[in-house]
Every structure is written in C-alpha cells, then in structure tokens.
Amino acid sequence: MFFGMARFVDSPKELWESIAWASSIRCSSGQYGYYPNTTEPVFPSDLVRFKCNDTQCLCQTMTQKPHLGQIVAFGRDFRTYREHSSPEGSIVLKVQRFQLINQFLSRPTYQNLTLDPPPHSREFIMLDDTIDVVPEELIERLTDITVYFDYAFRSSVQLPSDRSTDSLSPNEHI
C-alpha cells in the first residue's frame, strides 16, 4: 500500500499518480508543501500569488506582480520533462490562474463578446486552459485582498448568505 503525497509521472497508472490523489489532503498522509519560510502547509483551494516558469514573463521582474491563482493539486514531480528547474522528486503545486476579465476579453477571440451584466473592473476569471506547475518556493499566500467566489451567478436560488458586493470599494475585493 502507498502512503504519502501524490506523484506526478509521465504515464500515470496508479491511484497515487492521479489528480484525485493530488487534490486531496486526506490522501497525503500528513505530507504537504509549505509556504516559503513558514511551517504553514499549502492546501488545495488556497489562493496564492506565484511566479510562473516562463523566464520571459514579466512576473520574473520586480516591476510586475506575480500571477494570482488557486491551488488545485500538490505532489512530488517525477516527470522526465519538468517546466521548472527544481530537482526530480521535489514538491510542486498545480495552480489554476486567475486573470482580470477585461484582460481576458481583450484576447482576439473574445473582443466582440458582450457580457450582460457587464463585469466589474476588478472582476477575475479562472482560466481552465492555464494550469501552472510551480515549485513550492515560488508561491506566497494571498492575504492582502478579499476574494468572493460567485458559485450561483444568475441563479434563481437566493441563499441567506448571499450578499451584494456593490457597496464595497473597487480595491477591497476581486
């Protein structure tokens, strides 16, 4: 029986080589990635800032803030080709990127798309097609802004906990 965090490999065959294992803290047997210079573990669903593996990206400079994203999985990387320079077997995190919706809509494919209602200027969208594999030392916990997830946009169901963010200042939330 296998105990421990998931393993990312070239040709997954075992359950512990799957995203199901990598996205669950219950399967990791108490083994986790950690935020740099802390003893605080990183869990799937944590919101983070991170530097991607593209050496040409502006996030690698001090003039651009790191990317924003949500941890979707964690494990040890045993793949033959790795996007990062960490050694084989190092702990990596799979991070799903957020992008400001106005930046997303400026892509040629979406330039003529009209949204109703129009998006808020600080509204972000999760990118399904962009999952970064990042060594644990290149992330930091997102603590300086409040994030609200819209799980029921335009839903006919109104929950007691639903609230409008219209009264918040533009810099208070994303």
Structural summary, described in words:
The chain has 174 residues and is mainly beta. The protein has a domain at 6-99 and 131-141: SH3 type barrels (Roll). 5% of the residues lie in helices and 27% in strands. Strands 1, 4, 5, 6, 7 and 8 form a six-stranded mixed sheet that branches. Strands 2-3 form a two-stranded antiparallel sheet. The protein starts with 5 loop residues before the first strand and ends in a 33-residue tail after the last strand.
Which characteristics define this entry?
single chain, mainly beta, SH3 type barrels, six-stranded mixed beta sheet, two-stranded antiparallel ribbon, 27% strand, globular
Summarize it:
By secondary structure, this protein is mainly beta. Helices cover 5% and strands 27% of the residues. Strand 2 and strand 3 form a beta hairpin.
Helix-strand layout with pairing:
Blueprint lengths: L5 E3 L10 H4 L10 E2 L6 E2 L4 E4 L16 E11 L13 E10 H5 L18 E12 L3 E3 L33
